[in-house]
Amino acid sequence: MGWDSSRPVPWRRLVRDWLIYVAVMTVFLVLVYRDRVTVGLFAGLLVSGPIFVLIGAVLAKFGYQRKTMKQLRAEADARAAAKAAEQGVTRAAPRARPAPTRRTAGGGNRPANRKKR
């Protein structure tokens, strides 16, 4: 797909995703760099915001739309249903049990007075 200036850009979603990223990374960086936390770490996180949103906006103009969790679950359910339907039609009958033998305790070769383990 090519660039289309009429395609909508999900600004709220992009900003929300970036804020979630900043929150997670802030916690991570504070835990990892406990005593060595500097302003540069947080400045890097703040600079990443406009870059993230700008790249997301350009991708949206080219037609990229990230799928939601609801869409991904629906696709997974559809695949599972199709697979189950396919297996139900082509599934062979279960194999019959083999005849009991002396080794499988079906032979009845044990003396009556002997206790089972």
TrEMBL record:
Protein name (record): Unannotated protein
Biased composition (Low complexity): 83-104
Transmembrane segments: 14-33, 39-64
Keywords: Membrane, Transmembrane, Transmembrane helix
Record has Transmembrane helix as a keyword: yes
Region span, Disordered: 83-117
